[in-house]
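Hey,

Quick one before I head out. I ran the complex with cytidine-5'-monophosphate overnight. Inputs first:
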Amino acid sequence: MQILQDKKIVLGISGGIAAYKTPELVRRLKEHGADVRVVMTDGAKAFITPLTLQAVSGNAVADSLLDTQAELAMGHIELAKWADLIIIAPATADIIARIAAGMANDLLTTLCLATSASIALAPAMNQQMWHALATQANVKTLNERGYLLWGPGCGEQACGDVGLGRMLEVEELVSLGSDYFSDKYLQDQHWVITAGPTREAIDPVRYISNYSSGKMGYAIAHAAVRAGAKVTLISGPVTLNAPVGCQLISVNSAEEMHLQALLFAPQCTIFVACAAVADYKVANIAAQKIKKTNDVMQLELVRNHDIVADVANLADKPFMVGFAAETQNVEQYARGKLVRKNLDLIAANDVAKSGQGFNSDDNALTLFSAIDKTDIPLANKQIVAQQLVSLINQHYLAKQS
Ligand code: C5P
């Protein structure tokens, strides 16, 4: 089941330029299973139309406190009671000030007073406005009252300024929403996850690597953190931010990853080898940059250690999960690796199919144990990771009992 399945979310939109991102936010929340009702301030309607939000949410948009028809359909008190969570995105300096002052001069501020649900604010404003003493005092007040503060992020702003005040990206808001509802079912577990590619040096300026983006491993780390696990993420070079709350160990080569994996694995509950580790390294790394003097150049390569197999050979080995990225005979090769590498589970994907696997945002997996297999259908890697983490845990618990 998806984490946001049947969760009732009121999305309050106030009048900032970041309001143009809210249809996508609604779409993504719904994709994760949430039921979304949108409330707009008058200011919001200057940036985006209620019709758009109605179309994407599948529900009528509420925008007036004093509309008799709307009050007949789902009145403001009913809406306040209906919500499991209220997200205000974008939250302008004005709405933050009005909520902090306890005002109820429109539907959104009234809802904030009338609800017992948690309220998350995703601030979006010019960096100077964010830093203004009044705004900071209002935010502090709301923080002390238990409001959740999601952002703001830092970066370029619509007005051309650069600094704090950007609304968090839709993906980050959805992820924070999921974290809010997540069941901390891995609370007592320590997961060690390898992710990303490795780089095998040729000389001081060149290396051999592969197309792994690290997205799948990072998504697994995120899902495990969200489920309450302690997570150590041993990562090759990628351009992703490590999930908040996980311990990141950055490495370059397979040899460095091997060293760190053997260091952390004996303490952990579950070891997930998601990294695309280079099978070979250069036998003699040149100390100086190699010059192009010859028409043909030969590199001697030697096998790298198999990290997952070495961890699986430890006397006190954790529960072992490997990955098999294949371009053909997926089941046969995956089952072969499961046995050969002494693993409990192997997650296989067909990287020959377009739109999934290496460097893509989406993936589809089949999880093999010695006795069964489970398909995880094509979806965003975050969603695939949530299902995978839950399945791994089920297999782990079954092995313990
Ligand atoms: O590359 P291969 O298909 O053998 O990878 C299967 C599994 O083994 C993956 O989980 C991968 O992370 C792991 N592996 C490893 N060390 C290697 C090669 C692969 O941990 N040197």
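The chain has a mean pLDDT of 93.

Talk tomorrow,
K.
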